[in-house]
Amino acid sequence: MLKLTPPMGWNSWNTFGENISEALIFETADRMVQSGLPACGYEYLVIDDCWSLRERGADGRLVPDPAKFPHGMKAVADYVHSRGLKFGMYSCAGNMTCAGYPGSFEHEFIDAATFAEWGVDFLKYDYCYHSPLIPGEYLYRRMGLALENCGRDILFSACSWGSDETHEWVKTTSSSMWRSTGDIFDTWESIKNLAKQQERLFPYQGLGCFNDMDMLVVGMYGKGNVGLAGCSDIQYRTHFSLWAFLASPLMIGCDIRDMTPAALSTLTNRDIIAIDQDPACRQPFRLHGIWNHEDLLLYARHLSGGDIAIGLFNLCDHKNTARFNLDELGLPCSTGKTLVMTDIWTGKPAHVRNASMAWDLEPFDCAVFRAKVSDL
Ligand code: GLA
């Protein structure tokens, strides 16, 4: 399946881990709709690891755990679809999933057929317990081919954490997104680490196969499976802005039955989401800036229609001033052009003087602009 913009939705892992059930999924589907998330683009509801029994059935098929999903997976898919959402599930390229449930290794075609029968629209495919003798690209191509031939449009989400040079082969596997790093945790350090690992992968970002920086921790505040220390609302806003700026899939990971107004407002900022979903899918690039700190990330990305997204991300625990010259963006004074721009989060306009801009940032804060080219 070809997806033209980064997939958006919710995934059970970050908050619930193995504590998943039919009731949780039904309630989550209801609350997704009530909170207006689908209208902002969130469409997939994905059940991660731990949904099956520990052994396959006598017919070789995966069996949903009846204690968690008493009416089977087709009933769950039907409910999710009845709420206007798409339904995602999880498996693994190895003998077992990361949590020790049966993986799809050497069952790729039968599992793809089972997922199609149940009405699955999205498959996240992990990399634990895989054979060290078979290259990852072969394993992902197998499942990619199985999905392409299962008779249903199922989005393939590769999750090999960027290992074994995933970026070099992932576009040969029919996947629409690929995990470019290890797992996220709900701490500022984790967000910062994942963000800083992306830059060398910018050239692999593009239309139809998106670099996946992992599920969002916005709104977790330290609760749940990957909870740990938690973050502040400012840190969550910067996290969300970075993921969107770099066109990562946006998969919510908090308990959306119990979201704070601040988390909901961050996750539903349509102007930020529009940058994530920009149809041109251009590669982001780093601005060198002037007197720049290494943890002050200055990024830009050309958008469809001639606008430029500019993101200033202060990953430091102290204030910083972001400074750069417009000639880095292709607009020296000699062009007779400048940029008109307003920060999406605060509504504050930026002032460009002598083809140069400066912007003060609080600790952990960011500013994101949709800049328009205009006459000087
Ligand atoms: C791996 C993945 C996570 C999650 C867990 C489930 O760690 O990277 O996103 O799916 O497995 O066990």
What does this structure look like?
With 376 residues, this protein is an alpha/beta fold. The chain has two domains: 8-276, TIM Barrel (Alpha-Beta Barrel); 285-375, Immunoglobulin-like, CATH 2.60.40. It is built from ten helices and 16 strands. It has helices spanning 13-16, 22-34, 72-82, 108-118, 136-148, 166-169, 188-196, 233-245, 261-267, 270-276; strands at residues 8-11, 44-46, 86-92, 122-126, 155-158, 177-179, 210-212, 250-252, 285-286, 296-302, 308-314, 320-325, 337-340, 352-353, 356-361, 366-375. The strands form three sheets. The protein has an eight-stranded parallel sheet with strand order 7-6-5-4-3-2-1-8. The radius of gyration is 21 Å and the shape is globular. The N and C termini lie far apart (45 Å). The relative contact order is 0.12. The structure holds alpha-D-galactopyranose (GLA). Residues 13, 48-49, 97-99, 126, 159, 161, 183 line the site of alpha-D-galactopyranose.
List the helices and strands and how they pair.
Blueprint: E1 8-11, H1 13-16, H2 22-34, E2 44-46, H3 72-82, E3 86-92, H4 108-118, E4 122-126, H5 136-148, E5 155-158, H6 166-169, E6 177-179, H7 188-196, E7 210-212, H8 233-245, E8 250-252, H9 261-267, H10 270-276, E9 285-286, E10 296-302, E11 308-314, E12 320-325, E13 337-340, E14 352-353, E15 356-361, E16 366-375
Parallel strand pairs: 1-2, 1-8, 2-3, 3-4, 4-5, 5-6, 6-7
Antiparallel strand pairs: 9-10, 10-11, 11-16, 12-15, 13-16, 14-15
The structure holds alpha-D-galactopyranose (GLA).
